[in-house]
Amino acid sequence: METKMYFVNLKVSPKKARFYLSAIKKLGPAKSLEYLMYENTNASEILYKAIKSAISSARQILKVEDNLLNFKLLSVEQGQKLKRYKPGSRGNAKPINRRMSHIKITLVAKAGKKVEPKTEVKSETKKLEVKKTTSAKAAVVKAKK
Fold this sequence. Notes:
The protein is 35% helix and 31% strand. It is an alpha+beta fold and 145 residues long. The protein has a single domain, classed as CATH 3.90.470.10. It has a three-stranded antiparallel sheet with strand order 1-3-2. Strand 2 and strand 3 form a beta hairpin. Helix 2 crosses helix 3 and helix 3 runs antiparallel to helix 4. The chain is elongated, with a radius of gyration of 29 Å.
């Protein structure tokens, strides 16, 4: 079984995000989060959030532990370009392209032990015994105690 996640228009250039792909694919989803946590670039933060989201949704859909998941597909594609201009010398306009990227993640579950929902065992409830009293004063005294 597999789950597919597609993250669209992330504010990082595809070239910067692709830098981490070769290392991440070898590690697998659970260990790649540890790897990306200690990198301090914008691209690594965005990839960390995307992979973490994909793992949590796969855990909900497939009902499998994190260590049983593998990458089937992990790719970064070119997204939109925001075209901006900066004033240049002699009245020229210098173009600036702000690139965005799309990330595709497909996770596959290995054959293994599935996680079953935890069921709580309820302890036996103690029944309270109510004693009938003849006088109203005795009932009030017991209620105060």
